[in-house]
Write a structure and sequence with these properties.
Blueprint (H helix, E strand, L loop, with lengths): L8 E6 L14 H16 L3 E6 L7 H6 L4 H25 L4 E5 L8 E2 L2 H9 L3 E5 L9 H11 L4 E6 L4 E2 L11 E2 L1 E3 H6 L7 H9 L4 E5 L5 H6 L6 E4 L3
Parallel strand pairs: 1-2, 1-6, 2-5, 3-4, 3-5, 6-10, 9-11
Antiparallel strand pairs: 7-8, 10-11
Helix pairs in contact: 1-3, 5-7
């Protein structure tokens, strides 16, 4: 018998790269469908879910700036890329019977709702998945920071960071075989050791609001539901004792 979920409302942060599958860029349809299925499994257990999605599979603002593009313009392009990903995830989710709403921090009424906090909360209370697009709507802020901000605004119990590995390591385990895996960390540990989990602004925002972070590997089937019941492999980042 499966363990009961430990949380009522969760925010999952998805990277754009996590939607590429085996591609070098863009969207992989089966991968997007599988991610939607992972979310459905959690919704069916009675947990309310909201999502912040990145755009690095299409365009990454900081990379554009490094190649000579003006940073503000590059960041806005990256925000628009997240809207494309949000609409793709919405389509995949609704294909398997989920009710969803996309809310964008940059208003574009023809394709999605504008971000309105109270409306988003009401959607989740009705069992809908809310997908937040366009980051915070401001340049110089990452989608990690957007995920932390929206999670706090939505009164989420936890922020779940989907990655390509099963937790937080001292170095990239795909490149360093001797990398140490951490089961539990404090926010201060992450900041002082400069562990590359989320950017410092996102970590600081979670620390200030006592919002724990779970880091897990979304590539493992059923992993999203398992970590929310405390049975999967993940790293938890939380306030120090």
């Amino acid at each position: 018998m499966a363990s009961a979920p430990l949380y009522k409302r969760v925010m999952i942060k998805l990277s754009g790269e996590g939607l590429m599958g085996g591609r070098e860029f863009g969207l992989d349809g089966p991968t997007v469908a599988r991610v939607a299925g992972e979310i459905r499994g959690v919704i069916q257990s009675g947990i309310q879910v909201c999502v912040v999605i990145g755009g690095g599979n299409i365009f990454r603002g900081i990379k554009g700036a490094a190649e000579g593009m003006e940073r503000t313009s590059a960041d806005y392009m990256g925000m628009l890329a997240t809207v494309i990903n949000a609409l793709a995830l919405q389509n995949a989710a609704e294909t398997i019977g989920l009710q969803t709403r996309v809310q964008s921090a940059i208003p574009m009424d023809m394709v999605c709702e504008p971000y309105i906090r109270r409306r988003a909360i009401r959607h989740m209370e009705k069992g809908r998945v809310v997908i937040f697009a366009a980051g915070t709507g401001n340049p110089f802020f990452t989608t990690d920071t957007a995920a932390a901000l929206r999670a706090v605004e939505m009164n989420c119990d936890v922020l779940v960071k989907a990655t390509q590995v099963d937790g937080v390591y001292s170095a990239d385990p795909r490149k360093h075989s001797d990398a140490e895996r951490h089961e539990r960390l404090s926010f201060t540990d992450v900041l002082t050791r400069d562990l590359q989990v989320m950017d410092a602004t996102a970590i600081a925002l979670c620390r200030e609001n006592d919002l724990p972070i779970l880091v897990f590997n979304l590539r493992e089937e059923g992993a999203f539901a398992r970590v929310l019941s405390g049975t999967g492999r993940y790293t938890i980042i939380e306030p120090a004792d």
